[in-house]
Fold:
Amino acid sequence: MAGTAEKKLTELGIKLPTPAAPIANYLGFVRTGNLLVVSGQLCLDAEGKLVAKGKLGGGVSIEDGNKAARTCAINLFAQIKVALGDLDKISRVVRLGGFINSVPSFVDGPKVMNGASDLMVAVFGDKGRHARTTVGVAVLPLDAAVEVEGLFEIG
Structure:
């Protein structure tokens, strides 16, 4: 039986994909004590295709970047589901870290990251409100437009 968070995802028309396997020597997530750290998730759709490729401010629009960040959040949910078996075991979204593949002059990274942040709040309500860092970077794996990592408290 799906919990509250998964029902909300269903209402939003979101089906969790199978999480992508790590592409190097790291784990998709680590649980320590009452914390779950989820490694950076690229903006890969359920078929493994990038939702947005390239640089913000250099061919990728803010709207497409926002959708890419939302896709990264979906992939965070997929990792949480594997790690805990139930999204409702999350008692708090503590922090999201966003990496925006962008040209040096691009200053709207926070607008891009809202795609991930807004979805966390839509799914978890007030416990989805979090601290956040958004950083513009020169390049990401596979030339992905966005990557998002997360820190979650387990209740």
